[in-house]
């Protein structure tokens, strides 16, 4: 019985020691890992290895605690393996041999390799394509229009500045009627002579200075100058009764020849200013037209023009000459148109 109690107590002691061994082994492993970590932290990436402090490992055996010092690792880096550094403590209690605990510190060489960075820049050729520009110039044919100009033919008769034929002149004097100018035919000359004699105030002889030219248009005018008619008063455009009788004869001819038109030309004598003379001549021409219109002549058949003192009949400076120049004249158109 006593032997069993001794064995029980001894087994309990053995169980307690086993627990201590396990705890001690765990501490040794932890310290080893801490030492490795400390070595890496203190000398990171360096080629030379600093001397390591010896590691003291407390080993608790069955009879107590013993300290084991691990020698420092070799300063030369290992290529194929590191020689183990072991610390063995044998503590024998009675006849039992304790297991050996080995702590190995490995210092690894850290190699930092920086791969060269290669930057490749690809430059793409830039191709500029310029499309050829084609300029097409279209030449339009130039058309030259040549206008045929009929050369001016020199007329064989006298003309006015505007190119119209010079009117035939019929001068009525006391006992003579004088016709001068150019007519288109002999029949036209005979017609003018007959009309002059028929409209004379007194019997008169006819004197003709007429030329025949077929090129003269039949619309040629006939200018009538009355040397024996009444005249306007000095500086006046009033038509007196005796003067009105002269205009009544004109109205009679125009009524008989409805295709005839008349241009009334007002005149003035050489006294006074040119401006005043032109104004009075214009007033006389208008007064004559108004009188004929009052006699029933279509105003469309009548026109007027003023010439002032530029067309004098007589250049003398006497009352007779002044009176003759204060006048109106008629140019009739169409008197020979029917011949």
Report on this model:
The chain is of the alpha/beta class. Among the domains are: 2-70; 168-333, OmpA-like domain (60s Ribosomal Protein L30, Chain: A). The chain has helices at residues 2-42, 186-198, 241-256, 274-294, 319-325, and strands at residues 55-61, 64-70, 168-172, 176-183, 205-212, 221-226, 261-266, 302-306, 328-333. Helix 4 links the parallel strand 7 and strand 8 (302-306). The chain starts with a helix and ends in a 6-residue tail after the last strand.
Summarize the SSE layout with pairings:
Elements (H helix, E strand, L loop, with lengths): L1 H41 L12 E7 L2 E7 L97 E5 L3 E8 L2 H13 L6 E8 L8 E6 L14 H16 L4 E6 L7 H21 L7 E5 L12 H7 L2 E6 L6
Parallel strand pairs: 3-6, 4-5, 7-8
Antiparallel strand pairs: 1-2, 3-4, 6-9, 7-9
**Strands ordered across the widest β-sheet:** 5-4-3-6-9-7-8
Q: Please write the CATH class name of one domain.
A: Alpha Beta
Shape: rod-shaped
Major pleated sheet: 7 strands, mixed
Q: In the CATH hierarchy, what is the superfamily of one domain? A: OmpA-like domain
Total helix count?
A: 5
In N-to-C order, the SSE pattern is HEEEEHEEHEHEHE
The percentage of residues in β strands lies in 15-25%
Low-confidence stretches: 41-120, 125-131
């Amino acid at each position: 019985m006593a032997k069993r109690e001794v064995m029980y107590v001894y087994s309990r002691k053995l169980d307690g020691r086993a627990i201590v061994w396990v705890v001690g082994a765990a501490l040794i492993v932890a310290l080893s890992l801490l030492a490795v970590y400390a070595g890496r932290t203190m000398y990171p990436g360096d080629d030379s290895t600093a001397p390591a402090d010896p590691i003291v490992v407390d080993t608790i055996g069955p009879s107590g605690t013993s300290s084991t010092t691990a020698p420092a690792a070799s300063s030369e880096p290992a290529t194929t393996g590191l020689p183990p550094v072991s610390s063995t403590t044998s503590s024998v209690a009675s006849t039992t041999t304790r297991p050996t605990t080995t702590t190995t510190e490995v210092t690894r060489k850290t190699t930092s390799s920086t791969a060269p960075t290669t930057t490749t820049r690809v430059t793409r050729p830039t191709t500029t394509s310029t499309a050829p520009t084609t300029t097409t110039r279209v030449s339009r044919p130039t058309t030259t229009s040549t206008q045929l100009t009929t050369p001016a033919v020199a007329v064989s008769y006298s003309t006015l500045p505007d190119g119209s034929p010079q009117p035939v002149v019929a001068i009525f004097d006391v006992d003579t009627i004088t016709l001068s100018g150019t007519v288109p035919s002999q029949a036209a000359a005979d017609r003018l002579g007959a009309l002059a004699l028929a409209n004379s105030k007194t019997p008169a002889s006819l004197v003709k200075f007429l030329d025949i030219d077929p090129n003269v248009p039949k619309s040629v005018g006939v200018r009538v100058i009355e040397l024996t008619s009444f005249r306007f008063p000095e500086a006046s455009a009033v038509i007196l009764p005796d003067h009105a009788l002269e205009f009544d004869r004109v109205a009679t001819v125009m009524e008989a020849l409805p295709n005839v038109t008349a241009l009334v030309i007002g005149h003035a004598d050489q006294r006074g200013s040119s401006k005043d003379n032109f104004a009075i001549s214009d007033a006389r021409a208008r007064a004559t037209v108004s009188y004929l219109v009052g006699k029933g002549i279509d105003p469309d058949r009548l026109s007027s023009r003023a010439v002032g003192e530029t067309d004098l009949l007589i250049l003398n400076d006497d009352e007779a000459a002044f009176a003759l120049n204060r006048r109106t004249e008629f140019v009739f158109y169409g008197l020979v148109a029917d011949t």
